Amino acid sequence: MKWITRQNVKVDRVACPWLIRRFIDPKAEFLFAPEADVLAIGAREEAVPFDMPRNPELKFTHHDGLCTFEVLIREFNLKEPALAHLAKIVHGADLHGEEHTAPEAPGLKAIAEGFHAMGLNDEQRLAHGFPLYDALYAWCQKHPK
């Protein structure tokens, strides 16, 4: 399955591909495009758009105060406690004003901003970010909430 989102990924748009590859579709492909082109390219490429908060009609975007990572967990009925804990961290790092959700959230946001400051392209951000999310997930397994 192909998925598409806005280019210049940071927190949620790295966390979601990690979640999709690890728990939903290990062969998933990800495309990145300018926001204005995501829906057209997605239709042409038969790719599922995700994390497009300016398009609330989409299934996989922010809804009901949840970031896209949380929406994917809900929609795919992923019940593991470590994922729920990780979701709180991603939520706090992704949503402005929600940093208090988890004490780890500001650190995750700083790392995502650091990848951006390094000038990494989207594929490089996923390549660097996936091991980070693997590590956070492992930590969440040892520190359930």
Quick gist of this model?
It contains six helices and three strands; from the N terminus they run βαβαβαααα. It is mainly alpha-helical.
Walkthrough of the structure:
The protein has 145 residues and is mostly helical. It has one domain. 53% of the residues lie in helices and 9% in strands. The protein contains six helices and three strands, in the order βαβαβαααα. It has a three-stranded parallel β-sheet, covered by helices on one side. Strand 1, helix 1 and strand 2 form a beta-alpha-beta unit. Helix 1 runs parallel beside helix 3 and helix 4 packs across helix 6. It is globular, with a radius of gyration of 14 Å. The model has no long low-confidence stretch (mean pLDDT 97).
The percent of residues in helical segments reads 40-55%
Uncertain regions spanning at least 5 consecutive residues: none
The number of distinct structural domains comes to 1
Order of helices and strands: EHEHEHHHH
Strand order of the largest sheet: 2-1-3
Count of β-strands: 3
Mean pLDDT, rounded to whole units? 97
Attribute tags:
6 helices; mainly alpha; globular; 3-stranded parallel β-sheet
Write the SSE topology.
Elements: E1 2-6, H1 12-24, E2 29-33, H2 38-45, E3 47-49, H3 68-75, H4 81-94, H5 105-117, H6 122-142
Parallel strand pairs: 1-2, 1-3
